[in-house]
Amino acid sequence: LFQPRLGFNYSFEQGEDKRRMQLRGGVGLFQGAAANVWISNPYSNTGVATGVIGCGTGGFSACPPDDGLFSANPDTQPINKFTGASPPAPNVDYIDSSLTQPSVWKANLALEAELPWWGLVASAEVLLTKVKTGIYYQHLNLGAPTKTGPDGRELYFTPQSYAPSCWSASNGALLTTGACAGGRNRALSNAGFNNVLLATASNKGSGTAMTLSLGNGNGAGFGWNVAYTYTRATEVSPLTSSVSNSNFNARSIFNPNEDVAANSAYLIRDRVSAAMNWSQAFVGTYKTSLGVFYEGRRGKPYSWTYLNDANGDAVSGNDLMYIPKGPQSGEVVFVGDTAASHPNEDRFWSIVGNYKDLDKARGSVVSRNSTYAPWVNNFDMRLSQEVPGFTSQHKGVLSLDLLNVGNLLNKKWGRINEVNFASAGGQRRGFAYFNGIDAQGKYNYAVANTVDDYTLRQVKGESQWGLQVTARYEF
């Protein structure tokens, strides 16, 4: 990848006291994360190494009745039992021949200036990015859509599967018995294959980050700095996995193969940071230092989706939810309600009313990653002491770091509550099931008893305090 770049830095002085100022900036092409493992996917899923046996479900042929599915003998594996029947369906991965390494155009412009008061230094910077080549995945074995939903989305179920009577109101499962027999998703897919994924390129996605900061350096043993950053960032796919099918599944969508940019799953929209450093030599030249760092940020973004497979692409939980225009609008039928009694619709609208991004989406489909987890606050502190070394030119430094020190003071502080990552849909929440489309062409919704809740992020101890002691010898 050829990455041309151009930058400049211009320093000058202003005022009678010759306060220093600096204007800097640049523009260029930068490579993102190299597509190493994604390039290797086609070597893993060639179509001959693995196969999927459905045993009569998902459109697959029934499995042979004898000998089960497992054999320790390599010469009598299950594929040899399918003589005269459909063989196990393989997974196949492809790479678009035009795909190149991921890259973005990036430009920045910043101004830093000494102010005439108290040694303050102010800065302002804007950073712009535009995707040149990004990667996203298309599923080539969904088959053609069999219907278009009332909100315009593509649907892939067999005809009988659209009947509300073919859906369970309690868990959103598709029923396949009686009048619903033979119903399935990916109705027009090629039964000879399972998942067929194409890694292809997109030039959609961009970002803008604007930062303002103010501080006084570290004059007279005391320094501080405070900054605020506003970020807007969009992407087509978050690419959260090393496997192609997982990358396809872990994205909330309106249509499965859409090349549409939305809020990035990694977006931190608002961030406030502050630092304070103090040092004083009480014994000779050996300094005692105290530093405190604060970060406050808006929580991770997430999407509102149906709890089940609402479009028939065989992925449950990744379909962005349609919000009707308002209560009693008649656009959606709420399972279990009547004209005189509508507790399920009332519960639906009480949930919508609690989240402004859901409420703003009335009459449309909720945008991907349009809602944010709660604000996060974190304080870190360091206390260090210089001590004599073996010679006058040597010294030692003992440091005590308290990470997330607020949580040490109060167990409710410094916690990170966010939506748990789901393999289907990514960062998503839901509270309703798709329950088919009735004869009038209206969506049927079954409202769940609870809303998917936030999860305390604690896999690596992020929401608890930590202590670290460091001894360093300098010579």
Walkthrough of the structure:
It is a single chain. The protein is mainly beta and 475 residues long. It has helices spanning 36-44, 244-249, 343-353, 356-360, 405-409, and strands spanning 5-14, 19-31, 92-95, 103-114, 121-139, 147-148, 154-155, 196-202, 206-215, 222-235, 262-263, 270-283, 286-297, 301-304, 322-323, 332-334, 364-365, 371-372, 376-388, 395-403, 417-418, 421-422, 426-429, 432-437, 443-447, 455-456, 466-474. The strands form six sheets. Strands 1, 2, 3, 4, 5, 8, 9, 10, 11, 12, 13, 19, 20 and 27 form a 14-stranded mixed beta sheet that branches. Strands 18-14-23-22 form a four-stranded mixed beta sheet. A three-stranded mixed beta sheet has the order 16-25-24. A hairpin with a 4-residue loop joins strand 1 and strand 2. It is elongated and about 90 Å long. The mean pLDDT is 92.
Per-chain topology:
Elements lengths: L4 E10 L4 E13 L4 H9 L47 E4 L7 E12 L6 E19 L7 E2 L5 E2 L40 E7 L3 E10 L6 E14 L8 H6 L12 E2 L6 E14 L2 E12 L3 E4 L17 E2 L8 E3 L8 H11 L2 H5 L3 E2 L5 E2 L3 E13 L6 E9 L1 H5 L7 E2 L2 E2 L3 E4 L2 E6 L5 E5 L7 E2 L9 E9 L1
Parallel strand pairs: 3-8, 14-23, 16-25
Antiparallel strand pairs: 1-2, 2-4, 4-5, 5-8, 5-9, 6-7, 9-10, 10-11, 10-12, 12-13, 13-19, 14-18, 15-17, 19-20, 20-27, 21-26, 22-23, 24-25
